[in-house]
Amino acid sequence: MKTATVKELKAELSERKPQELLQLCLHLAKFKKENKELLTYLLFEADNEDAYIEKVKKEVVEAFGNIDRKSFYYIKKSVRKILRMCIKYIRYSKKKTTEADIRLFFCHELVRMTPSLKRSSILKNIYFQQVKMVEKIVTKLHEDLQYDYQLEIEDLQKAFRNR
User: By the 8 A CB rule, do 37 and 51 touch?
Assistant: First the structure.
């Protein structure tokens, strides 16, 4: 089966009645967990971005707390899983400030984690990659926000050096 383009889908959806659209959305939500999560964000959390960011941060803290620290192999796998989760939540929002906040928080938690990420080149690479992505995002924001985020990035880098 050939998948329709976004333009074709938009044209077809514009011709449907509201009740049909409701049924399509519910069917889509039942099909896959990510679809349901996206609908939950759009319907309940998109209006209050700060509360959404706090929920994501709580989930990240909980995930870092559940890491199996027996070996760096398990730590690396867990950190990558947490990063995938963060990226999924960033995709739901599509706001650059939300992306910067979540990525910075992920980096802060990574730096605070024990054992130190400095003992693993893979974890250091993940950390530096995320910091680089935040710096790239920050350049696209308003000047006032750029200054605030730049201070936060500097604090993060100081914490990394002192760890």
Answer: no
Query: Average pLDDT of the chain?
Result: 91
Cβ atoms of residues 148 and 103 within 8 Å: no
Confidence check: pLDDT of 163 > 80: no
Nearest Cα to 101, choosing from 65, 71, 126, 138? 138
> Would the pTM count as exceeding 0.85?
yes
CB 153 within 8 A of CB 131: yes
Residue 158 to residue 141: CA distance in whole angstroms: 23
Q: Report how far residue 83's alpha carbon sits from residue 123's, in angstroms, rounded to the nearest whole number.
A: 11
| Dihedral, CA of residue 145, residue 43, residue 79 and residue 126, to nearest 10 | -40
Token output for 126:
């993940």
Cβ-based neighbours of 60, under 8 Å, separated by 6 or more: 82, 85, 86, 102, 105, 106, 109
